[in-house]
Design brief:
Helix content is 30%, strand content 34%. By secondary structure, it is of the alpha+beta class. The chain has a nine-stranded mixed sheet, with helices on both faces. Helix 5 links the parallel strand 5 and strand 6.
Length: 198
């Protein structure tokens, strides 16, 4: 049993990071069987997409970090993608396009699936359709790249994100609970699964 205090808090955080953590997310799937017209972008906003994190040049990396923070890009594998929506030179919405993240294995997704997550819109730019337009654009781009399917994860209780996903045509699969040990093994839906490290 870990005690209390600042040192104990660090030990608990290290334990969750390196030994064991539990995760619960709502999982959605993009159903593109019925063609849909592209969603119009609000005036003054520009969408950018980098299929791999390493594709960002120095200026783009600096702009994304200024809004999303250093941890956002640092948490991505080199082959994971990034999208950003800018208003002028300021990034006001962003998200990750996971291709090599262990989270795909933790959730039990197909090996050729792409997962969208860690999406955020700056408070002053919400309720303008940026999230839905971004999801729509990402879905089209990853389909063109030949991905087997596009999934999205949302923390339970984030009703605004769930409504945005459903409004874009994503279908709710349901709640996925997983328990990850040593970053290598996931217990999900009554069975153990190996988590590949990319």
């Amino acid at each position: 049993m870990i005690g209390s205090g600042e040192g104990a808090g660090l030990l608990r955080a290290a334990y969750r990071l390196f030994v064991h953590f539990e995760r619960e997310v709502e999982l959605f799937w993009d159903d593109r069987r019925a063609p849909r017209p592209p969603r119009a972008w609000p005036t003054g906003y520009r969408f950018e997409y980098w299929p791999r994190r390493r594709d960002l040049d120095r200026a783009a990396r600096r702009r994304v970090r200024a809004s999303a923070g250093r941890l956002f890009l640092a948490s991505l594998a080199r082959r994971d993608g990034v999208y950003a929506v800018s208003h002028g030179e300021t990034v006001v919405a962003w998200g990750a396009v996971f291709r090599r993240s262990p989270q795909r294995d933790i959730l039990g997704l197909p090996s050729d699936a792409v997962l969208v997550g860690a999406c955020e819109t700056a408070p002053g730019h919400r309720r303008r359709g940026l999230y839905q337009a971004s999801l729509d654009a990402v879905a089209r781009l990853v389909r063109e790249e030949g991905a087997g399917g596009l999934y999205a994860e949302v923390l339970p209780g984030n009703d605004a994100s769930m409504a945005g996903l459903e409004g874009t045509g994503f279908l709710r699969i349901g709640l996925v609970r997983s328990s990850v040990w040593l970053g290598l093994f996931s217990h999900r839906q009554g069975g153990w699964h190996f988590v590949r490290r990319w």
